[in-house]
Amino acid sequence: MSDTNGTGGTGGTGGSGGTHKAGAANDTPRAGGTSGGLDAALFTAWAEEIAAAVRADRDRLTALDSAIGDADHGANLDRGFTAVAEALAGGRPDTPGALLSLVGNTLIRKVGGASGPLYGMAFREAGKALGDAPTVSLADLDEALAAGLAGIRKLGSATEGDKTMVDALAPALRALTQAVQEGQDPAEAVGAAAEAALAGAQATISMQARKGRASYLGPRSVGHEDPGAASTALIVRALHAAVSRTAGAPGETSRWAPEGPA
Ligand code: ADP
Ligand code: MG
After folding, report:
1. In this structure, what DSSP letter does residue 94 have?
2. pTM assigned to the model
3. Domain residue spans of the chain
4. What is the whole-number distance in angstroms between the Cα of residue 148 and the centre of ligand 2?
């Protein structure tokens, strides 16, 4: 449970600022400008969607982890995101960055194993990248998720093909970056990312694990979907659900308009 096998320790991430340039390159204004449209309510909805999705799929995630790990991934994430939902019920941060930091800190506190520190790091780095802007743009979100992925890579030193959560998150981010560059609307863009994450998770079935507990199995890890990649696909799908719901809500469409009515 506590063996992170290559996650490089769970200590504090320090205060290394300026991480938001880790991945996506674009010329759009930074968070805090008037182009932003994603607010703390949207990020709160995302966290709540994740909690519900993890709860619904807890047994599937645990079954995946029982095949190539120690059968705790569903329980680990359910514990973590239940704690997130409880924290949010007691008071919501009022910026997207603070919300993501709360998620990250809660996961680090509540979830053991490899996935707690890795997801915790990812949400913390993403939150740090968003700073204290009250609303952020889709391009800002893309940069923040790139910072999250960079955090996972730094802590776990996994690359694509190692059969980990990176194999779902990296293609999701590529799809999101491309959609942002093409000017797609948020629901479409995040939908493309969710599809890519799912395909990435499914592609782990044929991989041999080179990181984490599953790597102990060597060739016997082939033929099973990686549980962390599967949960990453859930997390990105939850973002799509939150964005679609918010964008589609009556009277809410102006949320996405750069110069919509106040
Ligand atoms: P544990 O393996 O400690 O029991 P979990 O079962 O909660 O922790 O999480 C396992 C998942 O963590 C794996 O399926 C994999 O996706 C991810 N993982 C493990 N090690 C690494 C790593 N070094 N880098 C990235 N992801 C990793
Ligand atoms: Mg496990």
Report:
1. S
2. 0.85
3. 38-247
4. 21
